[in-house]
Design brief:
The protein is mostly beta strands. The protein has one helix at residues 18-32; strands at residues 43-44, 48-50, 54-59, 68-77, 83-88, 102-111, 127-138, 143-156, 162-165, 169-171, 177-178, 201-203, 207-211, 219-221, 228-236, 251-259, 262-267. Strands 1, 5, 6, 7, 8, 9, 10, 12, 15, 16 and 17 form an eleven-stranded antiparallel beta sheet that branches.
Length: 272
């Protein structure tokens, strides 16, 4: 848009030829006016927050095999945009020379098309994509899992050192349940309701996904871990492969007391 410039002319100055004044003024404007710069488009990013660990139990021990601390996990999207992941077809993510068992993950980031800074699925249909790690195909489940999506860790409250951690936990992410919230752009109905090879996976605004304690990978090995009080830490997207509106809230912690095959949460906050 050109800059609108007006000049007040009065008194003796009206003797200036009007046509010449207009021409000179227009020429000066054309030379000095800055070129129009397109405003940057606002990216509507997700914000992933893990809930405190739940469904705590200890399995194994003695003849039952190694002890394991099993836990459930829920992760909510509280950002201004959805979290959406899809495989980039034809890419060998782990470079093992095989195609089809894993793919490069691409995050789809929607752009605020109407400038109201909130997500509308019908209006904000343009997007950009960024690499976001790898997805691995689980043949038994017939869907993709986003690798290294979460990590579980036991930290000694006495020393502050990590004493045990999970392997890289992968998720197939879907809208499982909606939280009661007034988040702008919140979705009232699930959108990512399928976890299959033909649909992208993700979390709508104000929705969370849960991996309960019975599922594979939902544990921390307690081999060599003595009884005592620990901080059970859950971290989402530890490697920061996903683009989010906030990165400082990807961790939750709860203090637990471990005694043989018994475990219980004793405080919501861990000791420093």
């Amino acid at each position: 848009m050109l800059y609108d410039r007006s000049v007040m002319v009065g008194g003796a100055t009206r003797r200036i030829a009007p046509i010449a004044a207009v021409l000179l003024g227009g020429l000066a404007t054309a030379i000095t006016a800055p070129a129009q710069v397109a405003a940057p488009r606002t990216e509507l990013l997700p914000d992933l927050i893990p809930f405190d660990a739940s469904e705590l139990s200890v399995t194994g021990g003695g003849r039952l095999g190694p002890r394991r601390l099993r836990l459930g996990t829920s992760i909510v999207n509280a950002g201004p945009g959805p979290m959406e992941i899809a495989p980039a077809r034809g890419r060998d993510c782990n470079r093992n020379g095989r195609f089809g068992d894993d793919e490069l993950a691409r995050q789809r980031i929607y752009v605020d098309g109407n400038g109201d800074r909130r997500f509308h699925r019908l209006d904000d249909d343009s997007f950009v994509t960024r690499e976001a790690g790898c997805v691995v195909f689980h043949a038994a489940h017939d869907h993709w899992h986003l690798s290294d999506f979460a990590r579980y860790e036991l930290v000694s409250e006495a020393t502050g050192r990590s004493v045990a951690s999970s392997t890289k936990v992968s998720f197939c992410i879907t809208d499982l349940q909606r939280i009661r919230t007034r988040l702008p752009g919140r979705a009232f109905n699930e959108f990512y309701g399928f976890c299959d090879p033909e649909h992208p996976q993700g979390l709508s605004i104000g929705w969370f996904d849960t991996y309960d304690a019975t599922l594979p990978g939902q544990f921390v090995s307690l081999r060599g871990v003595p009884d005592g009080r620990y901080c059970l830490r859950i971290t989402v997207d530890r490697a920061n492969r996903l683009s989010e509106s906030r990165e400082g809230n990807n961790r939750s912690e709860v203090a637990i007391l471990l005694r043989g095959r018994n475990v219980r949460a004793v405080a919501r906050d861990c000791r420093p």
